[in-house]
Design goal:
9 strands; 46% helix; Aminoglycoside 3'-phosphotransferase, Chain: A, domain 2; globular; Phosphorylase Kinase, domain 1; five-stranded antiparallel sheet
């Protein structure tokens, strides 16, 4: 395969899948506007998902990280199956999973099954020394941020409940468990009775609560932003209140840390602090003060 066939657009994705399908590709469509992920279908209805990473060292690390998870867990029911890979071009081909628009299970079951999955998976291969963004940013006052990000971080650092939680999280961070690293609703493919988990490029080591907090945080994000799974998220409000009110201190600290990180991400491309960023920061403060009245307004 020449570099001109690296699937960076629909034409090259079609050309690459056409080789895989022996000239029988009939359609190609982009699955994710933010990432280079393509759905390719052959004449007989077979579908594969092509995902490629950039050719930088950073992209190579992410490719190797995700590839090692699929290769080390070939028969795992929690993951899409690896069809093939191309190390020359940082390219993965995965089975296509027909998915539901909303989860078929409750948030309690989702957290329970996710914990079981992480305990069962095998994690081999090299692991690049990655930590979540908020862990690196919190005590680094020299990092370059845009004005909106700088404001968000300053507010988080000076809001007592948020500051105490994130400081505890950062100071106690230990590499004690394998993590997905970016676990959220968007990285679950929900089927009629279960799910598959994708996007393992950010896997790292840390406290198990970080991944579980990602599920809680992304449900909050769905409610605040009125995302595609907000109706399901609304049904989880009673369970969410119980999780937050009875959750361990380390889970709560991780939820607050993830909310601050999401607040930063929501203003990453904006000169001004977005409404979503402000709302997530306010919710982090509520949770830090153990005031869950905000759930009634979501």
């Amino acid at each position: 395969m020449t570099d001109s066939l690296r699937p960076t657009n629909s034409l090259t994705a079609f050309a690459y899948s056409n080789r895989f399908f022996d000239g029988r590709t009939v359609s190609v469509s982009r699955l994710d506007s933010a990432n280079n992920v393509w759905l390719c279908e052959s004449l007989d209805g077979t579908k594969i998902v092509l995902k490629y990473f950039d050719l930088s060292d950073h992209g190579r690390d992410h490719f190797n990280s995700e590839l090692s998870v699929y290769q080390g867990n070939l028969n795992c029911a929690w993951l899409p199956k690896l069809v093939t890979s191309d190390a020359d071009f940082n390219l993965l081909a995965l089975e296509y999973i027909e998915q539901r628009n909303t989860p078929s299970i409750s948030i309690q079951r989702l957290i329970q099954d996710t914990s079981a999955m992480m305990n069962q998976l095998s994690f081999d291969g090299d692991l690049h020394r990655h930590v979540p963004a908020i862990i690196g940013l919190w005590h680094d006052h020299e990092v370059r941020l845009n004005p909106s990000e700088a404001i968000i971080l300053q507010v988080a650092r000076t809001t007592i409940a948020i500051s105490q939680s994130v400081t505890r999280l950062v100071n106690s961070w230990q590499e004690i468990a394998h993590l997905h690293g970016d676990l959220k609703l968007a990285n679950f493919l929900f089927t009629d009775d279960s799910f598959r988990v994708i996007d393992w490029e950010s896997r790292c080591m840390g406290p198990a609560s970080w991944d579980l907090a990602g599920i809680v945080q992304s449900v909050i994000l769905e409610l605040v932003s009125q995302g595609p799974q907000s109706s399901w998220a609304t049904e989880q409000l009673p369970a969410m209140q119980e999780l937050l009110s009875k959750g361990s201190d380390d889970l709560i600290d991780c939820v607050i840390g993830r909310l601050v990180q999401s607040s930063l991400e929501a203003s990453q491309m904006s000169e001004k602090v977005t409404v979503l960023s402000a709302n997530l920061l306010q919710i982090a403060d509520f949770i830090g003060r153990h005031d869950f009245s905000f759930l009634r307004s979501l």
